[in-house]
Write a structure and sequence with these properties.
By secondary structure, the protein is an alpha/beta fold. The chain contains 8 helices and 12 strands. The longest helix has 14 residues. It is elongated and about 55 Å long.
Length: about 230
Protein backbone atom coordinates (compact mmCIF):
# COMPACT_ATOMS: atom_id res chain seq x y z
CA UNK A 1 0.00 0.00 0.00
CA UNK A 2 0.99 3.60 -0.60
CA UNK A 3 0.08 5.43 2.61
CA UNK A 4 -0.08 9.10 3.57
CA UNK A 5 0.54 9.72 7.27
CA UNK A 6 -0.43 13.13 8.64
CA UNK A 7 0.93 13.33 12.18
CA UNK A 8 2.53 16.25 14.05
CA UNK A 9 4.23 14.17 16.78
CA UNK A 10 7.67 13.45 15.31
CA UNK A 11 8.41 10.38 17.45
CA UNK A 12 5.03 8.81 16.76
CA UNK A 13 5.41 9.55 13.05
CA UNK A 14 8.90 8.04 12.87
CA UNK A 15 7.68 4.90 14.63
CA UNK A 16 4.68 4.46 12.32
CA UNK A 17 6.71 5.13 9.16
CA UNK A 18 9.36 2.61 10.24
CA UNK A 19 6.77 -0.06 11.03
CA UNK A 20 4.80 0.47 7.81
CA UNK A 21 8.00 0.37 5.78
CA UNK A 22 9.12 -2.81 7.53
CA UNK A 23 5.77 -4.35 6.64
CA UNK A 24 6.44 -3.69 2.95
CA UNK A 25 4.41 -0.50 2.46
CA UNK A 26 5.46 2.94 1.27
CA UNK A 27 4.65 5.86 3.53
CA UNK A 28 4.79 9.62 3.01
CA UNK A 29 4.76 11.74 6.16
CA UNK A 30 3.19 15.19 6.42
CA UNK A 31 3.86 17.03 9.74
CA UNK A 32 0.64 19.05 9.93
CA UNK A 33 -2.83 19.43 8.40
CA UNK A 34 -1.87 21.94 5.72
CA UNK A 35 1.09 19.83 4.62
CA UNK A 36 -1.22 16.83 4.53
CA UNK A 37 -3.68 18.63 2.27
CA UNK A 38 -0.84 19.60 -0.08
CA UNK A 39 0.51 16.03 -0.14
CA UNK A 40 -2.94 14.63 -0.93
CA UNK A 41 -3.33 17.13 -3.78
CA UNK A 42 -0.14 16.20 -5.62
CA UNK A 43 -0.20 12.41 -5.33
CA UNK A 44 -2.66 9.55 -4.91
CA UNK A 45 -2.63 7.11 -1.99
CA UNK A 46 -4.31 3.84 -1.17
CA UNK A 47 -5.15 4.94 2.38
CA UNK A 48 -4.47 7.90 4.68
CA UNK A 49 -3.74 7.93 8.42
CA UNK A 50 -4.63 11.33 9.90
CA UNK A 51 -4.03 12.50 13.44
CA UNK A 52 -6.97 14.40 14.89
CA UNK A 53 -5.32 17.22 16.86
CA UNK A 54 -2.68 19.06 14.81
CA UNK A 55 -1.44 22.62 14.29
CA UNK A 56 -2.47 24.78 11.31
CA UNK A 57 -5.38 22.49 10.39
CA UNK A 58 -6.83 19.79 12.64
CA UNK A 59 -7.49 16.32 11.32
CA UNK A 60 -11.27 16.59 11.04
CA UNK A 61 -11.02 19.86 9.14
CA UNK A 62 -8.50 18.23 6.81
CA UNK A 63 -10.80 15.27 6.15
CA UNK A 64 -13.76 17.54 5.49
CA UNK A 65 -11.65 19.58 3.07
CA UNK A 66 -10.53 16.45 1.23
CA UNK A 67 -14.07 15.12 0.92
CA UNK A 68 -15.43 18.44 -0.26
CA UNK A 69 -12.69 18.50 -2.90
CA UNK A 70 -13.73 15.09 -4.20
CA UNK A 71 -10.95 13.03 -2.59
CA UNK A 72 -12.49 9.76 -1.38
CA UNK A 73 -9.32 7.93 -0.35
CA UNK A 74 -10.06 5.78 2.73
CA UNK A 75 -9.05 7.59 5.94
CA UNK A 76 -8.24 6.22 9.38
CA UNK A 77 -8.22 8.79 12.19
CA UNK A 78 -5.71 8.48 15.03
CA UNK A 79 -6.67 10.27 18.23
CA UNK A 80 -6.29 10.28 21.99
CA UNK A 81 -9.96 11.31 22.11
CA UNK A 82 -11.87 8.06 22.48
CA UNK A 83 -15.33 8.96 23.75
CA UNK A 84 -18.32 7.82 21.72
CA UNK A 85 -19.12 11.38 20.65
CA UNK A 86 -15.55 11.88 19.46
CA UNK A 87 -15.61 8.72 17.34
CA UNK A 88 -19.04 9.55 15.91
CA UNK A 89 -17.87 13.05 15.02
CA UNK A 90 -14.84 11.62 13.24
CA UNK A 91 -16.94 9.22 11.18
CA UNK A 92 -19.51 11.87 10.36
CA UNK A 93 -16.88 14.23 8.97
CA UNK A 94 -15.86 11.62 6.41
CA UNK A 95 -13.42 9.26 8.12
CA UNK A 96 -13.75 5.54 7.40
CA UNK A 97 -12.28 4.26 10.66
CA UNK A 98 -11.15 5.61 14.02
CA UNK A 99 -8.35 4.23 16.19
CA UNK A 100 -7.70 5.52 19.70
CA UNK A 101 -4.17 6.17 21.01
CA UNK A 102 -2.29 4.34 22.40
CA UNK A 103 -2.72 1.55 19.88
CA UNK A 104 -1.06 -1.70 18.86
CA UNK A 105 0.78 -1.44 15.55
CA UNK A 106 -0.61 -4.81 14.49
CA UNK A 107 -4.14 -3.43 14.81
CA UNK A 108 -3.29 -0.31 12.80
CA UNK A 109 -1.86 -2.48 10.02
CA UNK A 110 -4.90 -4.76 10.04
CA UNK A 111 -7.32 -1.85 9.86
CA UNK A 112 -5.41 -0.26 6.97
CA UNK A 113 -5.51 -3.54 5.07
CA UNK A 114 -9.28 -3.72 5.59
CA UNK A 115 -9.73 -0.14 4.35
CA UNK A 116 -7.62 -0.88 1.31
CA UNK A 117 -9.70 -3.96 0.46
CA UNK A 118 -12.91 -1.99 0.94
CA UNK A 119 -12.00 0.32 -1.96
CA UNK A 120 -13.03 -2.44 -4.34
CA UNK A 121 -16.60 -2.20 -3.02
CA UNK A 122 -18.09 1.15 -4.11
CA UNK A 123 -20.10 2.87 -1.43
CA UNK A 124 -19.03 0.48 1.33
CA UNK A 125 -19.48 2.03 4.76
CA UNK A 126 -17.40 1.71 7.89
CA UNK A 127 -18.46 -1.31 9.90
CA UNK A 128 -20.21 -0.16 13.07
CA UNK A 129 -21.76 -3.41 14.29
CA UNK A 130 -20.54 -6.98 14.75
CA UNK A 131 -22.91 -9.91 15.09
CA UNK A 132 -22.36 -13.59 15.86
CA UNK A 133 -25.61 -15.53 16.25
CA UNK A 134 -27.60 -13.59 18.90
CA UNK A 135 -24.50 -11.80 20.24
CA UNK A 136 -24.01 -8.23 18.98
CA UNK A 137 -21.47 -5.45 19.51
CA UNK A 138 -22.15 -1.80 18.65
CA UNK A 139 -18.69 -0.41 17.89
CA UNK A 140 -19.72 3.23 18.18
CA UNK A 141 -21.55 2.94 21.49
CA UNK A 142 -19.22 0.15 22.72
CA UNK A 143 -22.32 -1.73 23.79
CA UNK A 144 -22.60 -5.52 23.87
CA UNK A 145 -25.73 -7.58 24.22
CA UNK A 146 -26.87 -11.14 23.71
CA UNK A 147 -30.47 -11.41 22.70
CA UNK A 148 -32.20 -8.74 24.76
CA UNK A 149 -29.66 -8.87 27.59
CA UNK A 150 -27.03 -6.15 27.91
CA UNK A 151 -23.57 -7.36 28.86
CA UNK A 152 -21.19 -5.21 30.87
CA UNK A 153 -17.55 -5.79 29.92
CA UNK A 154 -14.29 -4.40 31.24
CA UNK A 155 -12.11 -2.63 28.60
CA UNK A 156 -9.80 -5.61 28.04
CA UNK A 157 -12.73 -8.02 27.89
CA UNK A 158 -14.31 -5.76 25.26
CA UNK A 159 -11.14 -5.77 23.13
CA UNK A 160 -10.87 -9.53 23.49
CA UNK A 161 -14.48 -10.05 22.41
CA UNK A 162 -14.15 -7.61 19.51
CA UNK A 163 -11.15 -9.52 18.17
CA UNK A 164 -12.94 -12.85 18.54
CA UNK A 165 -16.05 -11.48 16.81
CA UNK A 166 -14.00 -10.12 13.92
CA UNK A 167 -12.61 -13.65 13.51
CA UNK A 168 -15.83 -15.53 14.23
CA UNK A 169 -15.76 -19.17 13.17
CA UNK A 170 -11.95 -19.20 13.10
CA UNK A 171 -9.56 -20.72 15.61
CA UNK A 172 -7.73 -17.83 17.27
CA UNK A 173 -4.40 -18.78 18.86
CA UNK A 174 -2.92 -17.48 22.10
CA UNK A 175 -0.16 -15.79 20.10
CA UNK A 176 -2.74 -13.91 18.02
CA UNK A 177 -4.55 -12.72 21.15
CA UNK A 178 -1.33 -11.68 22.87
CA UNK A 179 -0.29 -9.59 19.87
CA UNK A 180 -3.61 -8.06 18.86
CA UNK A 181 -5.33 -7.62 22.23
CA UNK A 182 -2.40 -7.15 24.62
CA UNK A 183 0.20 -5.83 22.19
CA UNK A 184 2.78 -8.50 23.07
CA UNK A 185 4.89 -10.05 20.32
CA UNK A 186 5.96 -13.01 22.47
CA UNK A 187 4.47 -15.28 25.10
CA UNK A 188 5.32 -13.75 28.50
CA UNK A 189 4.42 -17.04 30.26
CA UNK A 190 1.31 -15.60 31.81
CA UNK A 191 -2.18 -16.95 32.36
CA UNK A 192 -3.72 -13.56 31.55
CA UNK A 193 -5.49 -14.96 28.47
CA UNK A 194 -6.99 -17.88 30.37
CA UNK A 195 -8.27 -15.56 33.09
CA UNK A 196 -9.88 -13.11 30.67
CA UNK A 197 -11.36 -15.82 28.46
CA UNK A 198 -12.89 -17.46 31.54
CA UNK A 199 -14.42 -14.16 32.67
CA UNK A 200 -15.69 -13.42 29.18
CA UNK A 201 -17.22 -16.88 28.84
CA UNK A 202 -19.10 -16.37 32.12
CA UNK A 203 -20.57 -13.13 30.82
CA UNK A 204 -21.55 -14.07 27.27
CA UNK A 205 -22.42 -17.78 27.71
CA UNK A 206 -23.62 -18.38 31.25
CA UNK A 207 -27.43 -18.47 31.56
CA UNK A 208 -27.89 -18.48 27.78
CA UNK A 209 -29.40 -21.28 25.71
CA UNK A 210 -26.19 -22.36 23.98
CA UNK A 211 -22.48 -21.49 24.33
CA UNK A 212 -20.58 -19.44 21.76
CA UNK A 213 -17.03 -19.32 23.12
CA UNK A 214 -15.21 -22.63 23.00
CA UNK A 215 -11.68 -23.80 23.71
CA UNK A 216 -9.97 -25.72 20.92
CA UNK A 217 -7.56 -27.96 22.82
CA UNK A 218 -3.95 -27.40 21.83
CA UNK A 219 -4.86 -24.64 19.37
CA UNK A 220 -6.70 -21.70 20.92
CA UNK A 221 -10.25 -20.39 21.04
CA UNK A 222 -13.20 -20.12 18.69
CA UNK A 223 -16.27 -17.89 18.79
CA UNK A 224 -19.39 -19.25 17.11
CA UNK A 225 -21.96 -22.01 17.39
CA UNK A 226 -20.62 -25.45 18.20
CA UNK A 227 -19.61 -27.48 15.17
CA UNK A 228 -21.18 -30.85 14.46
CA UNK A 229 -18.78 -33.74 14.87
Amino acid sequence: MNILLVEDDRQVAEFIVAELTAAGHTCVHAPDGEAGREAAAIASYDVMVIDRMMPKMDGLALISSLREGGNHTPVLVLSALGDVDDRVQGLHCGADDYLVKPFAMAELLARLEVLNRRVAVPGAAAQIKLEVEDLSMDLLRQHVQRGNTSINLQPREYKLLEYLMRHAGQVVTRAMLLEHVWGYHFDPQTNVIDVHVSRLRQKIDKDFEFPLLSTVRGAGYRLGPELDD
